[in-house]
Amino acid sequence: MKDSERQRIFDEWLSKHKGLMFKVVRAYSFTAHDREDLFQEIAIQLWNSIPKFREDSAVTTWIYRVALNTALTWTRKEKKQRDTKSSLIQSEQILTQTPTFKDNRLEWIYEQISQLDEVDRSLTLLMLDGFSYKEIAAIIGITESNVGVKINRIKKRLIEKIQAGD
Name one GO biological process term (predicted). Predict the structure, then answer.
């Protein structure tokens, strides 16, 4: 593949699918700096992976898979490097912001998603983006029935947290 063709594909995919990449970034990173880093990592991985795209799945599905796998790898690496200082900085940033009620709900939702294990977190993001159980199963690598079971369990846990006032 020529570099010019690769650049054209990359630019097209980035402009069309930047939103879904940001959703993955938002779920796996918490500070503005981390979000920038993770987005760059995903973009680099997308660039490197373009020649491997075989068109046996939808571009959106494939980009999600690249983004999720990159985010999972990045998260594991960051957990090893994270220290108390970054937690304090994050807490300070959150406390100094004045979010609206809607922002608070959205923050709460992302906080709950961030506390899920890696598979459940990925599954939740895909579900929120309207992917079918079949598409989610293909992206994550589990069966459709397992997708349904996991979604129901996640919903149940979130409902319990809402009712408990967490």
Answer: DNA-templated transcription initiation
